Amino acid sequence: MKNILLVGAGKSATVLISYLLEHAVKADWTLTVGDLDVETAQSKLHGHPRGAAEFFDVHQPDLRRQAVRKADLVISMLPAHLHLPLLQDCLAEKVHFLSASYVSDEIRLLANEAERAGILVLKECGLDPGIDHMSAMAKLDELRASGANILEFETFTGGLVAPGYEHNPWQYKFTWNPRNVVLAGQGVVKFRHNGNYKYIPYHRLFQRYETLHVPDFGYFEGYPNRDSLKYAEAYGLQDVATLYRGTLRRPGFCKAWDVFVQLGMTDDTYEMEGIEHMTYREFTNSFLWWDPLQSAELKLAAYLKMDYQNEMMEKIAWLGLFDKRPIGLKKATPAQVLQKILEEKWVLEPDDRDMIVMLHKYVYELEGKTERVQASMVVIGDDRERTAMAKTVGLPLGIAARLVLEDKLSLRGLVIPTLPQVYQPLLRELTDFGVIFEEHELEPPAG
Amino acid sequence: MKNILLVGAGKSATVLISYLLEHAVKADWTLTVGDLDVETAQSKLHGHPRGAAEFFDVHQPDLRRQAVRKADLVISMLPAHLHLPLLQDCLAEKVHFLSASYVSDEIRLLANEAERAGILVLKECGLDPGIDHMSAMAKLDELRASGANILEFETFTGGLVAPGYEHNPWQYKFTWNPRNVVLAGQGVVKFRHNGNYKYIPYHRLFQRYETLHVPDFGYFEGYPNRDSLKYAEAYGLQDVATLYRGTLRRPGFCKAWDVFVQLGMTDDTYEMEGIEHMTYREFTNSFLWWDPLQSAELKLAAYLKMDYQNEMMEKIAWLGLFDKRPIGLKKATPAQVLQKILEEKWVLEPDDRDMIVMLHKYVYELEGKTERVQASMVVIGDDRERTAMAKTVGLPLGIAARLVLEDKLSLRGLVIPTLPQVYQPLLRELTDFGVIFEEHELEPPAG
């Protein structure tokens, strides 16, 4: 009998735990879920005979090592910056290690060691990164096999609210880590467009979105991620003219979010003075001129050269940024204040469903003709537990774990799911869960 | 006979060296000028019998210690980040240490040690910081002694080109470290306005200037420095409603500089791709949309929502940012490319003269009346050697050195020139060199 250790029993682990328990008897394994909060871990096992919950603290080396030693495979759902010590234990104990988070520079240095240890270290095997790699590489490999020459590649993902549940002015709620949403895009953005490298400073990012359309689901805005060139080599796209990775939101989001960026409200580098006695309105006023004759609303509109009445102002006002209520924090950076304000309003209601949208655009030359294809995938959450996010992040890890333990995935060393040996079986099984890409042709651009 | 060691014989040391040599016989001291470039150091001594040039490398501990040991007083004109080891030698050898640069956190930690060693460590004794501290404190102390209650304090300094020599579209040339000019203001800006803390993100900084007027010298723009609250305690201004420190430029500068900020050209955090084969025009295009139907000029105007013809575009074009010439660098950050472009154009000609403008605004209550006073100082350079910058940075150090060696300045420990014992004699002698503040009343603000 094999043993799986899953570390981190948060929201995104729910579907993964179900999957692993469903296969536990047939595949003959046990699942240990380790978390600081044993009760939460326990509750997600629903009394399944093959499941066990355990106290796990990644900062206790002996406990960590002991837990790893009992396992054949470890799946980490911890925040990315906590992965390193856990992975080092897996290397020492020769235990496979799977996670959905990015390959960091430190982890890249351990690639040789992973190979020598004869274990699989599978990273970036969730949604984004994860399903994006798999689906893009499946298509790109297919195109290249047919003799196509890839000219352009763009890819977008968004964690959103499902149609019918998005009736707030932003058409957005938090379905994932709020802090990451508040800080998204900070630094410089870099991509390639028609053979030219392009750079966008953070303060212009939310003014440079692209409008996209997904049949049956309508329009979206895609704004670029920080480094679109990161996977040029892994995807074999070093020479394509256009390479772009972006994030999806509903129309109108970017321009309204840009108000926060322009004001400086997403800054996380300094603590504000006198937060303890500050109201939401005073917070907003901190970023505007002093002027006793104008309201904060009027100053904001004038500062950002907007009409007094417009859809950005409506979104801002709806969030409460002009309210005279106290913020209720003792110390905070602007970004922390903004996160608190957003968390009060962008909350998923018990009956809300979330939605994942992923979209790839391929432009290629085949038999002398230029073809433009868009492939899009939409996954809707079942309920508050089985969210689209939990499905798309968790299931690739669950399927990969099963394949490894059933000896159907023989790759070893540090791997991301860009290889056919990984993406073929994973994509095949993922279709059972609604992870299906629909393709259609795109019109050539005007001009 | 006393010995002065002056380290760093660059442009800003010229006037200081003259001053120290002029007083050498009467005050009975010798001056040793240490520099990596002995020839430059030698040339500035003009064969004076009390002067000597020596090779000095701050990174050679034995050499450094030996040079310090022979001195009674060290003046450092090195870049600020090189001060620490030199100061540590001064502490060990009990030698006074004077410099114009800011008190860093590391140096602040050595305050007790300086007191125990019985030496004076006088920092921030140049122009800004330096003459700003002295002149502001002289006035503030005088006002407080007369019973005034200080309500507002603003201070501005600018290193500019003298009237008659400023005939380029920017009315600006480099009279000081170009890199500092390119990177100025990065981070968040913080000040207090009428009792409210105000914050400006970097990308809005050059849109938030204030217009100022100096009699006989016309109009200036003042944009805020990063942390205006830094000297609140040192100046005894913890409770004033408005506290603001800024930098002066000629009108039109800020809006044109903002173009660089908006495009991301002042970013020093990443190296651009393919710089080696890039033209100035391609550099500009890197920050704009890809569009084969529009010129870079038209895209820039559209991107920043400007008229196609306007004074910002003229300034940008004059600098050559649309030129098809190669940049001629192998690797560079955007800020390094921009610096190169500016250095080609903002160069002081042999006959040009520079100008220092300093301006303080005081608002105070005295005998029930609110008074508004502006004090301004303008110093013009004599020629390319005796620049206004070299005079105002160097002379305060020279005068302070003389006072220390003549036992007329008995303060010990870490000191900045906010104390009457320092600012009174320094300001008195500085008037001989044209450092004179003219005061006049200001109108109350409209509204």
Distinctive features:
Rossmann fold; seven-stranded parallel β-sheet; 17 helices; 16 strands; 24% strand
**Strand order, largest beta sheet of chain A:** 3-2-1-4-5-6-15
Low-confidence stretches of chain A: none
What's the total number of strands of chain A? 16
Overall mean pLDDT of chain A stands at 96
Strand content of chain A: 15-25%
Measured between the Cα atoms of the first and last residue of chain A, the distance is 63 Å
What is the CATH domain class of the domain at 2-123 in chain A? Alpha Beta
> Helix proportion of residues of chain A, in percent?
25-40%
- Largest interface, chains and sizes: A-B, 37 and 37 residues
Rg of chain A, Å, rounded: 23 Å
What does the oligomeric state look like here? homodimer
Structural class of chain A: alpha/beta
Which overall shape of chain A is indicated by the principal axes computed on the Cα atoms? globular
Q: CATH homologous superfamily of the domain at 2-123 in chain A, by name?
A: NAD(P)-binding Rossmann-like Domain
Biggest beta-sheet profile of chain A: 7 strands, parallel
Q: Based on the coordinates given, report the CATH architecture of the domain at 2-123 in chain A.
A: 3-Layer(aba) Sandwich
Number of helices of chain A: 17
The CATH topology of the domain at 2-123 in chain A turns out to be: Rossmann fold
